[in-house]
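Re: the 524-residue chain
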Amino acid sequence: MTEPREGSTSTPSTTTTTRRALIAGGVGLGIAGVLAACSGPSPTPTGSPSSTPTPSRTPGPTPSTTTGPTTWSALAAATTGTLLRSGSQGWDGARVLRNPRYDDADPQGILRVANADDVTAGLAFARNTNTPVALRSGGHSYTGWSAGGASGTDVPRSLVISTAALDGIEVSGDSVTIGPGAELGDVYAALAKAGRAIGAGSCPTVGIGGLTLGGGVGVLVRSFGLTCDQLTGVTLVTADGAVHRVSSTSEPDLFWACRGGGGGTVGVVTSMTFRTQPAPPVLLVTIVFPWSAAARVVRAWQAWAPKADPKLWSTLKLLGGSRHSTPTVTITGVWTGEKSGADTSVDGFIQSVGVTPTTHTATDMSYGTAMAKLGGGAQRVSQSATSSIGSAALTDSQIDLLVQHAAAASHVSGLTEGGVALDALGGVVSDVGRTDSAFPWRSALCTVQYTAAFRDGADPAPFDAYVRGFRKAMTPAWGSGAYANYCDAAITDPSAYFDVNTSRLHRIAEQVDPGGVFAQPDWV
């Protein structure tokens, strides 16, 4: 799935081993790994994770016959990729994530794999030496777990297995096979050149592996589905070093877990195949309202965006901080149909707000141009973040609370930009049953992301407190659900991410990784 960690060569403690394979910017599966099935407790209502404790996985190294490398030099000799240790050329550039708050990362080593055999060798070394493992592809882990040991992560120094170099993109007919380390900007450019498209995220530096395995909410989600819904096949390496090629008909439990099961639970993904669609023309819409209309905008948006024509996706952002003289209310929309349909829908939304926007633009462009235009996040920015699942429409008093907490970002000293973003779901996302893939939030209105960007080197504690306080304030309205790709170390119940699918994911992990090589702190 996507990102785990590393550790010392001595036998790790129980705490160390349970935190072994954590999430980050996208390798292995999802945020980092996958899983495989059995029976479990009765389903609980969406948005109300079960209070029944999930049986804990027994941490510890997978039994090994000590085949494979047992020293760092032997690991280097056994692999085609690059093994970096502290002091190696390129070490400082390789060890850091996209979030500078984890720039003190100090893993034991970083194995930049060139193929599945390298992954097998890296896992054998980890088993033979009791070295914790951290998985990484794009390096966007909110929690810093894929750093393999950094301040504030409670992650041991680990061997980072990085799939960043597995970045090939091969378009063939109506499918595309992509390495998990391929960045979205490159994926979109290659697809657009071939006249094809998939729906994925907007940040150009995010790795396709982590995004997909955690679900994959993006600008075409309502018309194309989650990125994981477009997945047709996965190649992954399990903890025992075996290579699996999984699909809906080959090891379907593992494939099910790859579709939204998050990262760091069952294996290291080395290749993913997706079905594509003809690249559509795109209408990019931007609407800005005065802050005084924020509550009206939220009320109208939640009634409109998740139920609009599936060809329309939008995000609503309420942001404050030192970058803004006053907090802002911005809606960005993407439409893939005839322009007249967008005009009718958007004009109806604006009319329901009852306030004239300060900005309203609509620009026609190609799929490739639109994906590049929407891309942000290329620069490294220190930030705190967490999430909710928008499981129900907010009442007026709950809307007021949302607006108040977004405005409060401007009063947190050192916070440059922060607040909340609501990304619409609905459309074809809801056509899939909530247990048909590991992603359970099929009937939700939106995903919700709370963020706080701050100056590099600043103490992250007050910014963590802001975003987590925001989530806590909205929990009575939306419940405790969260999005796996916006993982938060303060969320200690895995059912917050996986709801009714938690026990099945746990059983899959037990089956393919009984020794807990990829066990994460508070996941399955």
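Confidence is low (pLDDT under 50) at residues 1-64.
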